[in-house]
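Write out the 3D structure for:
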Amino acid sequence: MMSNQKKALTKQYKETPRQMGVYQIRNVVNGKMLIGGSPNIPGIFNRHKFALLAGAHDNKQLQADWQELGQENFSFEVLDELSPTEGADHDYREDLTFLEDMWLEKLEPYGDRGYNVRKKGREEKLRMITDNRRGAE
């Protein structure tokens, strides 16, 4: 009996749409922010918090500020939410990337303003591919 209930709860969990969209982790002391997009915002917040608390976040500057200022000086906020409009199997990655790029362009969280690293443009990506191909010859 218990296993049927567990199966039903597991099925319900898998079918429940996750909150997806663009988020920021904001340093309330200096205003710096990390912008990201995720198909599972609660999950990505947990992942960031876990890594920061463990001292193992891959963004070294964010980790250093977290260590120095403490978690109470950081807020985790949803900037833009993407509502599921397609079927459960629809892939929203392209939509999320577009939304994230819009927020990155609007807020420019680079250098003194934030923790993001500027994404490479189309020409830069093509140049890197060409250079890699030359190196392989």
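The mean pLDDT is 88.
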